[in-house]
Sequence to fold (681 residues):
Amino acid sequence: MKKLIPTLILGTMATLNSEAVVDKNFNYHVDRFADIEVLRYEVPEYDRLSLNQKKMLYYLSQAAQMGRDILWDQNGKYNLQIRQLLEKIYTDYSGDRNSKEFKAFEKYLKQVWFGNGIHHHYSTDKFTPEFSRAFFEAEVGKIADKDLPLAKGETREQMMTTLIPVIFDPAVMAKRVNQDGTQDVVATSASNLYGDGVTQAEVEAFYAAMKNPNDDTPVSYGLNAKVVKENGKLKEEKYHLNGLYGPAIAEIIYWLDMAKNVAENDAQKAYITKLIDYYITGDLRLFDEYSILWAEDTKSDIDFVNGFIESYGDPLGMTGSWESYVNFKNTASSERTEKISSNAQWFEDRSPVDPRFRKDKVKGVSAKVITAAMLAGDAFPSTAIGINLPNSNWIRAQHGSKSVTLENITEAYDMASHGNGFNEEFVIDEPTKKNLEDYLYITDMLHTDLHECLGHASGRLLPGVDQDALKENGSALEEARADLFALYYVADPKLLELGILDNPDAYQAEYYKYMLNGLMTQLNRIEPGNDIEEAHMRNRQLIAKWVLENGRKKGKGGKDVVELIKKNGKTYVRVNDYPKMRELFGNLLAEIQRIKSEGDYKAGNDLIQKYAVKVDPKIHKEVLDRFSKLDIPPYRGFINPVYTPVYGNDGEITDITITYPENYTEQMLRLSRDYSPLTKK
Ligand code: ZN
Fold:
C-alpha cells in the first residue's frame, strides 16, 4: 500500500525539522506543463555511504530503471509503440520548435512520459492531444520504414489505422482503470492487464475456481499475470524470465545478481536470491517467501522494492503494477518511527474499535524513515511519500510488514512549495495559518508514519472473511481505515509522552488540513463534471464529509464540529471543536473496521456511494477558480539523480558519483535510449 502526497501544498518551510540536511541552494524546480510540475529531489547523506553500499545502490538503480518498459506495456498495449513514435518525431523534428503545433505536440509527449502511457497517472483519463492529426500524419510520413516501431508483421498503414483513433478519438481506450461498478470494469478499462474479449465475470469465475477457501496462506492470485482468452478459455500469461516481459526481467535479474554480490549481510543476500528465483519462475509461493524474508530484514541500511507490487492499476485490484524504489535509511528521523512502532501494541489495545476486531498481537510492525535514491516504474515520476509492504494479508498478520516514509521526497515537496500563496487563499484565519506553519510539516509526517506503521497493520478479519470481500471499494475503505487510525492517534497525548511532539494542540494543524483538503482543495484534481474515482481521494472525501455531516450541532455550545462558512464571497472550512472531531474520527474508524472485519460489502458500498464519489459542483467550481489564480500545479513528480561509476586503472569501480544534471526531457529520452529492453530492435 502506498500513501500519496496530500493535495494541500504548504506555503511554508519554517517547520522543516532540524535534523534534515537541506541545501538551501538546491534547485527543486525542473519543468511545468499541463497540470504537472516536475521537481528534482536531493539525496542528502549519500556521501556517508561506503563504496560497497554505493555499488549496491547503483546496481539496484540499474535494476529499477530496467523495468520501465514493463509498466508502460501494462498501462496500455500501444503505449510503447506510441512512445517510440512520439520520441522519434520529437528528436527528428526540423521545423519551427516554437510553432503552436509543435508546442502542443511537446506538451502531449511530456504528459505521456509522466503518465507512463497515454492516460493520466492519477485520473487515468486519456490525454487529449492539442496538435492536429494532420501534423501527426505528416511527421510520421517523414520517418523511414526501418525506423518505425512496427509490431511484428505490421505495415505502416496498419500501424496508423490502429494508432490514430487510440491517440485522437476520445471514445477509444478512454480510461485506463474504470471503477464504475455498474459496468464491466475489465472490458471497459484500457489497461493491458487483461486480453481482448475477456470479461469481468469470466475473470472472477476463473480466480474463484483457483482459490481454495481453506488455504490460510493464499498466494496473491493474479499478481504477476495477464489473463487472456485462448480458444474461448481463460489462461494466465505469467510475467517471468521465459514468459511475458522476459527481456526486461532478464536485465532486472542481471542487476539484482550484481547487487546480491555486494549485499550488506546474509539476510539481504537471501531475499535478493529469492526474488531472483521468483523472477525466473513466476512462482507466487516464492514471491511470498521473498516477501517474508524482506519484511523481516530490518537491519540493512540499503533497501529496495522491485516487482509487481501495488494493484491500483487493476480494476479488480489483483495484478501488480511494476515498480521500484531504491533507498537507504535516514538514521536520525528513523528514531521517530521506531518510537511509534515499538509502541504498536499500546496503540492497538486502545484503538476505538470493537475489541473483537483488534489484533491480540501486532507483529513486527517495523517502521523507518528513508532517503529515496531511485524511483522507477509506477513510482516514477509520480511517487508515494510512504509505503507499507508486503500487501498480502496473511503475511502481514503472521510476519509483520515494513513501513517506510520517504522523507527527502516530502522535503522536496515542501521546499518547492515555499511561498506559493496557498495558505493565504484557503486557510480561514491567522491563528490557523500560524498553527499550520508551526506544526503541519511534523504532524503531516507523523500522519504518514501512523498511517503506514500502525494504520494498515492494525485490526483483523473475523475468521472465514474473504480479504477481497469489499471488492471494488476495498482500496478506498482500506485507505480510510489507515487514515482514520492516523488521525485518531496524531491527537493522542502519547505522542508528547514519547517526545515526538511538544505541543498538545499541534495535531490541530493536521486536522484542519485534512478537512480542508477532503472538503475542498483536493477537488482541484477533478475535471468539472467528473466524479471522484481514485481510492485515496475517495477515502479523504469520505472521511471529511462524514465528519462534517455527523458533527452537526455536536460541538461545544451546540455548534457544528466543523462547518463551511462564507467570508467575502469565498468558502472556508471552520473547525469549532477539535477534541470532538477526534471522537468522530474514532467513531468512523470503528465502523470501517467493523465493515472490513466482517466483510460487510453493503455497508461499505453505502458509505462510499453516500460520501466519497459525488462532487458538490458549486464548491468544485469555486476551488478550481481560486486555484487557477494561484498557478499551483495539482500534480507533481520527480526526475531522478544520475549515478555514474568512476573506474580505476584496473577497471574496478572506485567511486560512484551522484549528480543532478538533466532536465525532464533529457532524462526521459536517456531512459528510453538506455533502459528499453522491450523496445530494442
Ligand atoms: Zn495507505
Notes: The longest strand covers residues 366-377.
